[in-house]
Structure formats: C-alpha cells, structure tokens
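Data deposition worksheet. Section B asks for the primary sequence of the deposited chain exactly as it was used as input, without tags or linkers unless they were present during the calculation. Section C holds the resulting structure in token form. Section D is free text for depositor observations; keep each observation to a single sentence. Incomplete worksheets are returned to the depositor.
Section A, Depositor: J.P.
Section B:
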Amino acid sequence: MLDAMSMDQLRTFIAAAEEGSFSAAGRKLRRAQSVVSHTLANLEEQVGFALFERTGRYPQLTEAGRALLADARAAAHSMDVFKAKARTLAEGLEPELAVSVDVMFPIARLTEAVQAFHAAFPTTPLRLYVEALGAVVQPVLDGRCRIGIVGSLPEVPEQFASDYLLSTPVVTVVAPGHPLAVLGGLISRAVASQYVQLVLTDRSPLTEGRNFGVLSPQTWRLADLGAKHAFLRAGLGWGHMPLHMVEEDFARGSLVPVTLEAMTMTGHAFSMHAIHLKDAPPGPAGRWFVNRLKQQ
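Section C:
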C-alpha cells in the first residue's frame, strides 16, 4: 500500500497540519474540504494508522502524525528541488559544472566568482580542479571538465576556443637572506644560474620534457604552488610567483622582489584565458561563470 503513496497526499497532509483544519487546507490547496478529507483518509489507510485526531472541533496531529511531518516536509522539498532542476535542464542548463583552474589565477577573484555562482545557480554543483601548466588543459581534453582557466601554459592546443579574462602580474622573489637579495639592480642570467631555481612542475604529460621560465640549470621541481611559496620563504631558492600571492610577504619582509635580466624578454604577467573544446562549448552556467571571472 505504501508504494501507492503520492506526493499530492503528502502535500495535503502538510497543508492540513500547518493550517490547523481541513477546510483551511482546502482553501490553501484550492480544493473542497471533502477532497482534502478523502485524500487524508486514503493516506491513513496506506500508512496503517491515524495521522489526525478528529474528536475535537479541529483535527490534531497524532503522535505518529507529528513523527512523520518533518519527513513529509523533507520529501516535498526534495521534489521541489527535483522539479526546479528538471526545468533548468530542459532549458539547457548543465547538470553540473566542472572547471580546471590555473593555480596562478587570483584566488580572491575565483572565490568571489564561486560565491556568486552558488547564489545564481544553487542547484548546479560546481567542481574545481586547481592545477598548473598542462594539467589545467588535460581535464578539458579528456572530458572531465567543460572549461579550463589557463595562464601558466603559454601554448594552448588548436582544438580549443579561447576567451581572454585578465592578466596576472608575476614577480621573481627570494628570501631576504638569499644571496640574490643583496645584489640589487638587474641580475644577469649567469648570476641567477648559480643558485637553485624553484620550479612548478606539470602533473600531465602535455609538457613533458619542456621548460617554461626556467633559467637555472639547478632546479628543484615542486608540484604544489603552496610548497614552492614556503620553500621560497625558507630561502631554499629563487623563483617566479604571482604578485597577489606574495604581496603580504613583501609587506612583512619575508620575501623581496629581484629583477632578472631574462625576465625583460619573457614578460612580467600571465594572460589568463578561459578555454573549451570548440565542439563542446559551455552551457548557460558555464558562460555565466566565465563572464563573472572577467568582472573587476
């Protein structure tokens, strides 16, 4: 009998409990009182016990009825969420949005966009993969992500469409006690190559055997930008970092900027782009998220 229970019966039960009478529930549901009474009687027959005491002027929930009310509300809410999501899917909204994000992307801008996305698309899960270099592109290539936010990889495969977002300033930094910190002025490549360079490495095979921004033959390769940041502050080498991650270090004096001769040729910023496969453009939620990332 329970398998025949309907969502309409649960909504009628909730309305009668909240309105305090069958007639008031009928008015709320735009039904005759007799229809409400008949619906609730059928529900009670299916569950096998009374949900309301009908001895007084107004029906009162039984102990069993009170025990089931919260679950009935939860079931009705779940159905409302289901219907809302079904409507948006029918309109072309993605069932979820997966995005790979370059670790160099400004975290404050990303956090603001994620918060705004959650408010605008509360029923659309957002999955983020924070990676570097080719590992940002790989999830989009293999279909795990619909969008990639790239910057540290200078070359993007031709099967991608690209949309410019912003530029992230990059600085070369060392701990204040590092030998390069005391030199000042423009530091030549020959001098910089005498010291260990901390390099962010790629988790994907896309750039295997290739180097970007590597000037020194002495390198320590790290797969995590946070680890690189900590090693730089510990004086274990020099390296390039996005400005937004080291501004507080400059203020505290835990890191200092240095100017390398080669950087005048390679540039001082990452151009961040949103990419997607040309034959698999993002839906409404994905387009909204990319546009939000562009906003100042």
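Section D:
The mean pLDDT is 86.
The chain has three domains: 2-90, 97-166+277-294, 168-269.
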